[in-house]
Amino acid sequence: MLPVTLISINNGPNAAMPRIQLANLTKSYGDVEVLHGIDLEMADTEFTVLVGPSGCGKSTTLRMIAGLETVTSGEIYMDDQRISHLEPKDRDLAMVFQDYALYPHMNVARNMSFALRLEKRPKAEINAKVAEVAEMLGLTEYLLRKPAELSGGQRQRVAMGRALTRDSATFLFDEPLSNLDAKLRGQMRAELAIMRQKVRKNMIYVTHDQIEAMTLADRIVVMHSGHIQQQGTPQELFMRPVNKFVAGFLGSPPMNFLKAVLESEGGQTVAAGEGFRIALPAELADRARGFVGKEVFFGIRPSDLDFSPDGAEGHCIDLRVAVSEYIGAQSVLICDCAGESVTVEVKSETPIALGETLRFTVRDDGIHLFDCITEGAI
Amino acid sequence: MSSASNDRPNPAFYALLGTLIFMAIGPVVLMFVNSFKLDIDIISGTSGLFFLPTIQNYEAALCDVLWYEPEHLDYCAIRFGGAFKNSIIIALISTVLTLVIGCMAAYGITRFRFMGRDTVSFATLAVRMVPPAVLLVPVFGLWNNTFCLDRDGMIGGFIRDTFGGRGDVCLAGTHSGIILIYVAMNLPFVIWILQSFIVQVPRSLEEAARVDGANPFQVFYMVVLPLIKPGLAAAAIFTFRIAWNEYLLASALADRDTKTVPILIVNNTSEFNIEWGVIMATGMLLAIPPIIFTLIASKQIITGMTAGAVKG
User: Fold this and answer.
1) What's the maximum distance between 2 C-alpha atoms anywhere in chain B?
2) pLDDT digits over A146-198, tens only?
3) pLDDT, tens digit, for every residue of A12-50?
4) Residues 6+ apart with CB under 8 A from B21
5) Domains and CATH numbers, chain B
6) Residue ranges in A260-347 assigned as alpha helix (H)
């Protein structure tokens, strides 16, 4: 079982939303277990993002919270109440689907009021609520249109509006932005962030896009093959990944991993690999004492390598530039280090030529070491 | 090159088209023309298009619903009005019943996992493969002898006391009897055709409705049913047409008060006299309801009902 960090966050003074807690949740399809004991506690009004590669079980987890999938074992709690046997409609939640799932035979207003109409709320209340949400999402002029007459972004907004019209305690988002083009996605992400500040509700958001996760989340939960790998704030996960998977998953371009052997050399611990020898900072060397003489993964983010032609020996790595990808102010260099590919992020004005061997200083606080066998962080 | 040949298709294409149109329209035109001729004109075969149109045949066919007595008739032999009413009752009720049962069955088979689901799905098609003629004898026997109400039983007694008569009623000879066999006959095809429509309704729509607070029946009636309207319309046209035209089973199961229009037409021939003109006129009248029904129902067949529901 991989290490799972449980972080308790104090409830704010206005706490009214139920706390959602997953206890040892598993899910099997036939003989195949796809979720292996998920333990998760979400503070109220927290924006939790479940992130991971496809097939990691994040959507299944969300659908189990929604009640669209049965729970094989374990339990879902809402404020200490067991809810895993309840129908979706009895769980007081709203959901935004990946493919929008708008009712095509109803116009925008009727789509948004569907849940309220099912609850048989008074007409005036329904109209007021729809008008309020439409105003907030900029949909007022489209209320009488059918979904087929809307653009992708507008449909997405209607799907969002349909969830917001209900005053549910919890909002579930299942990869809501993945069907939009890149520009619209960025825009909707910003709108989501703004909406998030206005609507203080529990939000659980599933995505495979680590940028969405990093920008929106109060708490990120990284999942991989049915296990929670790590959870915490975006900063915690970025700065102190607990294992190689989390380190490689978050951050763009992803972290570089090089095989190295730790050696003791004149009171210093040195990570020696093919084509590089880097001295470890004292604190990390302390932690890695048990690994001296063993093989480890030496991890370094592309942004933690600085171009420095006259860097000091022992803190630098020499890389031959194979490809340079110009992306504006920054350029991403794909370099070669004794057969291994290493990505470096540099300012675009840095004078480089393809095929050249350049020297980069490795920032001390950017060095991550991972056990070669368990892949856990050292 | 190809655009030139597309602009001017082969003359043979037009010839084929003309033949097909003639084959399709010809009999209808012949029937229409003959329905305005006297029998003597029809049989003589010489008059062709030159004849004096008469509505005598229609008067004879509709004699029991006309407000006046046509002078060329001394006795109203054909009771078209009654048969027409029977046809309408039987065709409409059996269509409605078939659709109501069919859409629910199709939804169940498509969306729910239960033991024997595939068997049920296949069995619906297998039933369809049995020709009606095979059913005729057993159905006739069952409807006449087995599915009867005892004259001294509770319901039979009630019928006797309320409506008079003998009180022992069998399915044969009643509207219900014919409706029942039509529903049974059409249901497999309707289930089969609606399954393919229900499969196309995105599952996430139903899930969204469930999260929005709909119970299974609300999901079905408020989300699924409106989206399979084209399928329902197609199935309705099909079912209505079969029920309206059916002859074999109706001829065995109907009695004089419940006979439908096709039976009426055939009964109008005898070994001494075939009233061609009246038969043609009745045939024209018979064709009107399905045309009206199809026009109304086909309005519901709009493609792209689920457009805009989901992306991708």
Assistant:
1) 84
2) 998 998 888 988 998 999 898 888 999 999 888 888 888 888 888 888 888 88
3) 344 478 889 999 999 999 889 999 999 999 888 889 999
4) none
5) 2-61 (no CATH), 80-298 (1.10.3720.10)
6) 282-287
Say what the pTM is. 0.79
* CATH architecture, domain defined by A20-244: 3-Layer(aba) Sandwich (3.40)
Among the listed residues B309, B293, B297, B300, the one whose alpha carbon sits nearest the alpha carbon of residue B228: B300
Q: What amino acid is encoded at A235 in this protein?
A: Q
For residue A340, give both structure tokens: 């291994």
pLDDT tens per residue across span B76-109 = 777 788 888 889 999 999 999 999 999 999 999 9
Rounded to whole angstroms, the Cα distance separating A235 from A229 reads: 16
CB atoms within 10 A of CB A294: 14
Report the residue of chain B nearest A120, measured CA to CA.
B213
Lookup: tokens for B21: 């149109």
Residues of A in contact with B212 (CB under 8 A): 89, 94, 114-115, 118, 162, 166
CA distance A214 to chain B (A): 25
From chain A, pick out residues whose CB is under 8 angstroms from the CB of B213: 89, 115, 118-119
Q: Using CA atoms, how far apart are residues A139 and B240, in angstroms rounded to an integer?
A: 44
Q: What are the residue boundaries of the structural domains of chain A, listed by start?
A: 20-244, 256-371
